[in-house]
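The protein record now logged underneath.
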Amino acid sequence: MTDALRLLSDHAVWVWLALGAVLLAAELATTSGYLLWPAGAAGATALATPLLHLDDLSQILAFSTLTIAATYVGRRVLGARRRQPDDSLNNKPGRLIGRTGRVSGSFSAGHGRVFVDGAEWAADMAAGAPDPEAGALVDVIEVSGSRLVVRPPGR
């Protein structure tokens, strides 16, 4: 323990900069968002140590306080700006809502197939809509299970 404190006393700025660099590298490797704030606190401690003539205990207290404050403020401010996870990422049919497709073959009794976004899908016509002919354009309005619900454009 005394060797660590002696190293901190003799080379305080470099110790804090090295700690900040290690924490920043770990943050870049893991992209967790949690190590960025201690890395910044270590950098700030490195700057404050010679300017304020901090002793060993004051450096550790400054680092701890800055880490807690930076984490709290950073998560509070930047957390609100974070984009919400995209629920449609692995839900390809759900991403098709609002897209226009082309009828692959004639519909029969409200059921048929539609080519949308590079793939052919089983589809049902919306209630009250007439069955389209092959090649007609249709809009995807919802997804029911793995089947698309479509209607003629502009309706």
Summary: The two ends are 76 Å apart (CA to CA).
